[in-house]
Amino acid sequence: MSNGIFGIGVSALNAAQRALLVTGHNVSNAGTPGYTRQQAIQSTSEAQATGSGFVGQGVQIDSVKRAYNQFLTSQVAQATTEASQLDTYFSQIKQIDSLLTDPAGGGLSPVMQEFFGSIQDLATNPVEAASRQSVLSNAEVLVRRFQSLDDRLEEIQDGANRQIENSVSVINNLAEQIAKLNGTISLAESTAGGHAANDLRDQRDDLVMQLNQEVRAKVVVQRDGGYSVFIGTGQSLVTGTTALQLTVTASALDVRRLEVAHVSGGNSVPVKESSLESGKLGGLLQFRNEAIDAVRNGLGRVAIALAGTFNEQHQLGQDVRGNPGGEFFIIPSPAVVASTKNTGSAGITADIISYGDLATSDYRLRFDGTNYTVTRLTNGVEGGAQMFAAFPQTVDGVRLDLASGAIAAGDEFLIRPTINGASQIGVAIRDISLIAAGAPIRSEAPLPNTGTGRISAGTVNTPPPPDPNLQQPVTITFTSATSFDVSGTGTGAPTAIAFTPGAPISFNGWTVDITGSPQPGDTFRIGPNTNGAADNRNALLLGGLQVGNTMGGGTTSYQGAYGQVVSLIGNKTRELEATSEGQAALLRQTQVLQQSQSGVNLDEEAANLLRYQQAYLAASKVIQTASRMFDALLEATG
């Protein structure tokens, strides 16, 4: 009898002691990241059969289990990877938003307004050297602002590249630790009779959670309890005790563009970026594709269109020396990059033939052996494709041509029409006398005319270069009130042309209009603009470009196109700010729910300590009582 009571008391004492150890372990790890509350699972020892029935034999500890909920843990991991992606994207794009909307004048709008303000001042004072110098000075400020914005964007892009490399390094390190823990857990549990190595499993789950901060990771639990981890479209990162690696390589089409590749069997296979949509790595890739490229192309488009259309009008003017206007700005050229995997020798050229039709897209050109396909790449997303069989081909104002060599099936090229716009724009002239503020032609109506006809000052027709006979003297002679003849080199000397008051009359690359009622014998002359240093007609046309819809197929101005870039980034920044805050709140709620089941509640553990302490004392009393009973029995038999 006494042995039975002793055994029951000892089992109770051991159970209480084990429960106190587990509770103490919970309390000491309440602040440990990734720790899951543990619980001692006990059951009744097998009862002993007697003639009067079954008599209990006390209690036993079966195992120590984690309060682990796989479903809630998976939800936390999902919320974590989404929150990390949004927070990373938002923190990066804020840099660009601040850059473009700098209230201290760091944006493009103020210097663009100052440049065109100096053009308006030139139109008012075309002979003033100070006005001409102001134009050149403000032009230099404008191109430097374009260049400084692009330099800053390039710095941000380089920073994103470094963070991509760091994120890949962190992912590889975490994968190695998870694989190592797979082995450690398997060994520990096999030597413990299959009991779960709770602390080691917590460490592994915490590593998986850290991995989800970097990239979305799918965990598959194997039959032996080991974790297999997959990313992207199913690329294996951890299998048993083996950790595969990710690496960062330069894109075949752009050496400055980093790609994430999966290393398997000694080969590096690029991972599709759209499959890495979550985590810090996903946020960095999305930021690079959707924000950096969009802004650099958008700024480049404004720079190229401004330089190109300004040059076109400037070349239609005349400088102080009476010479035709030359190029005012240096116009950047499109970038064409051949893939490093190409087997052919083809050289592809890209030339901008319509500044107004330029888009902010990049383009990928591929040859399948028969046809060429040009695919638009807008903000990292493939858009419309255009197929053709031979060069040249024009896409969005850019003419593509095969300049040299032979193209092979499978060859591809990256065409970036506007990427260099902001970085390579420049001022082409340094001499203020070369600013073509005047027009190269002059019209006049001789005093002897008897009618009321009036001739306009005339404009030079676009696009440049002007007609070689532009400044050849031309005479318009009215043979009646409703018709006139034309004479002069290059005109063809037509006769009896019907006259409509105010209708345009064009010859030799210029256009004039005659209003009123000319009489027979009246003449009008168009010729070179000699001694025209004070002429401001071309300066007025140059100034008008500021508000003209010269971009977007005639739908927007320079300022409007820049505003589109600012609006795109501003709206995306506000969107990410709101969604990032919302996702962070969702993550907190999910963590609270998960911790309510798996976390350590110190109040509850304090109550458990008291309960198990009392159980321990009670078990001691049982043993003490058994001892007294045994002593009494000895005395009675003695």
Give an overview of the whole structure.
- With 638 residues, the protein is α+β, with helices and mostly antiparallel strands.
- It has four domains: 2-62 and 619-637, no CATH class; 73-121 and 154-288 and 556-591, no CATH class; 295-432, no CATH class; 441-528, no CATH class.
- 44% of the residues lie in helices and 22% in strands.
- A five-stranded antiparallel sheet has the order 13-20-15-16-17. The protein has a five-stranded antiparallel sheet with strand order 22-30-25-26-27, with no helix packed on it. Strands 5-6-7-8 form a four-stranded antiparallel sheet, covered by helices on one side.
- The longest helix is centred in the first third of the chain and has 63 residues, at 129-191.
- The radius of gyration is 41 Å and the shape is elongated.
- The model has no long low-confidence stretch (mean pLDDT 91).
Note the main attributes of this structure.
44% helix; 638 residues; five-stranded antiparallel sheet; 30 strands; 22% strand; 10 helices; elongated; alpha+beta
What number is the mean pLDDT?
A: 91
Strand content: 15-25%
Span of the ends, CA to CA: 18 Å
Major sheet summary line: 5 strands, antiparallel
Count up the helices.
Answer: 10
Low-confidence residue ranges = none
Number of strands: 30
Radius of gyration: 41 Å
Q: Record the strand order, biggest sheet.
A: 13-20-15-16-17
Envelope shape: elongated
The helicity comes to: 40-55%
Provide the domain count: 4
Q: Name the structural class.
A: alpha+beta
